[in-house]
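Cross-posting from the modeling subforum.

Setting up a comparison between two proteins and wanted a second pair of eyes on the formatting. Protein 1 (sequence, then structure tokens):
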Amino acid sequence: MHIPVLFNESIEALSIKKDGTYVDGTLGGAGHACEIARHLGPDGTLIGFDLDSNAIARAKEKLTPSAIRSGGSGQMCKVILVQENFRNLDKVLEEHDIQEVEGIFLDLGWSSFQIADASRGLSFQEDGPLKMTLKDNPGEDDVTAYDIVNSWDEKTIADTIYTYGDERASRRIAKAIVDWRRKKPIITTFDLVSVIESVMPRKPWMKTNPATKTFQALRIATNDEYGALGETLEKGFERLKQSGRFAIISFHSGEDRIVKNFFRDKAHADLATLITKKPITPSEAELAVNPRARSSKLRILEKI
């Protein structure tokens, strides 16, 4: 079951106007999107993004008048759903003749639906092909985790695991990957777990799996998540109306640093106001029902 993180805090952060236009750049399970829609009137617009066709399908099922209007059939906001990376926000807005928006929301965590889908190869807990891409059908030019571990040089692999995963054992892991692939390709997620555990055996007292940081790093690299986030921040801020808000939930230090620095720079340039001097984190009550939220941080910026 997918449980939206920092749910009420995120909706409050957007300060939703009934006739406003709002972007949910990360539909996922559509929990936040549905709540945004409930706060909008018939003159409002919700634009939802996701590269995952399954997420688009879930959103279509949930974003209906009967569901949004508590079983009624009253008018609801206009809904635009696009199977697209949020880094192309500007292109999508232009296609729909939308110049500015009142708010943009991003939940940078992977949805539980995607993690549980073994065919995507996102989790070290399920055996599947080493794809890790958000795209349903990656093309020849799209990088997959398989490409990274089987063709990148040892130094680049080590740097990737260290930079995106904060993994101190990155050099040992990269060497083990290269040694393994000389004998046979690393094809599945469990193959990669075996490689990692050959240099970092799992101990009973360990709180996290030794593969956690490496898988995180490969997901980030495969999907160019930092590049996409940087583009979206720039393009999104440009499209925000005066008093429009950015609300972003991050889950690890790298992406949070990107958001924090961007927000700080806009505030220092007197272009925006930091609504959150420090990030909002989950309450003990939320963590009790959703441990997945433990590393989440919500930052909010308002354009001047």
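Protein 2 (same layout):
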Amino acid sequence: MDALVTGGTGFVGANVVRELLREGATVRGLVRPSSDRRALAGLRVEPCEGDLGDPASLRRAVTGVRVVYHVAADYRLWAPDPKVLYRVNVEGTRAILAAAADAGVERVVYTSTVGALGIPKDGSPGTEDTPVSLRDMVGPYKASKFLAEEVAREFAQGGLPLVIVNPSAPVGPWDVKPTPTGQMIVDFLRGKIFATLDTGLNVVHVRDVARGHLLAAERGRVGERYILGNANLSLTEIGRLLSELSGLRAPRFRVPYAAAWLGAACMEGLGRLTGRPPRVSLTAVRMARKRMYFSPAKAVRELGLPQTDVRVALRDAALWFAEHGYAMLPSVTRMAAA
């Protein structure tokens, strides 16, 4: 078996699976019995039912595998019990890496996030070497991924041939759930975004992120991390691009930070009473105080990371959401030809 992909039913994982299959690889997927498997429907993937909290299932999953892509994570900016995030993201990472080490796999690619990296105070894009500490992490998701990266580096230092990749904000097909960035696109297409915050993020086509995983396995230096990103854009710029592609009106107003914080606090309070995730979490608003701008130069230079035009990435995401019933597009033909 060429590869094991954990988290293959998720957004990035499903695209990693597709890239592997496109290369002719044989792929096994670690899937929980209760997982939504729509993103893998019709693909030639060998399912291995298990869980990051079940060491026996992890040993079965890595048996006979050459490369492990550990993409799985609990990606929630709000959870009723934040300890679950640490259990999955930190201890689950420790468990799968221990199983991979025991099995003697040839290479491991661990999927982290740019959220675990530092952001320069002068406003310049962050890099893999920007100083950062656990104190800089906003919310339990980022903190758990920061600690998981430390676990991954410990294994690399101990001899596991592991490479770390840090995707920024991927957009594109197969965002089934969808992710927070994907939901922003869906909300735009539904006409639900009338205002934005003064913030920004690094946007990248999910296909490039998936390709970056394969390139990291092939060319990445053990113990190193690579930012898988592309264009740094403000939310205003993203809205303008989506408007140009779709013909829909871009948001015209900017929400003051204090108003956003108050609204998120109310939504979280309601969420704690009902158990339902808030539409906007306090963590998301706190994250928005910093522009999440990063440089993918190292990955481009050392891995050959593709840099698909961000307009294509946004177009492909919007078309996929429209084709799968998440939103209507008034100008699908125009967008397809853009």
